[in-house]
Amino acid sequence: MNKLLTLIALGAFATVAKAQAPAIPIAQAFGKVDKADLEMKACDFEKDANAEVLFDKGEVYFDTQYNIIFERHRRIKIFNDNGKDEANIRLTYYGANHAEFITGLQAETINLENGVATPIKVDKKQIFTQAVDKNRSALVFSFPNVKPGSIIEYKYRHTINNIGDFPDWYFQGDLPTRYSELNTNIPDVLTYKNLVNLHYPLVVDKTSGSNTHTQAMANIPSVKEEPYMDAVNDNSERILFQLLSIRGTFMHSFSDTWTKVGENVIKWEDFGEQLNRKLAGEETIVAKAKTFKTDDEKIAYIFNEVKNTMKWDESYDNTTNDGTVKAWEKKTGNSTEVNLILYHLLQKSGLKVYPMMVSTRKHGRINPAYPNSYQFNSTVAYIPVDSAKHYVLDATSKYNLYNQVPYTYLNSFGFLINKADNAYDMTFLQNTDPVRQVVLINAEIKPDGKMTGNADISSFAYNRINAIRDYKTDGEKKYIENLRDNNNNLKISSLKFEDIDIDTLPLRQNINFNLDLTGSDDNYIYFNSNLFTDLKTNPFLSENRTTDINFGYRDNYAITGIFKLPAGYKVDALPKSVSMATPDNSIVFKRIVAEQDGQIMVRLNIDHKKSIYFKEEYADFHEFCKKMYEMINEQIVLKKS
Question: What is the residue range of the signal peptide feature (predicted)?
Answer without folding.
Answer: 1-19
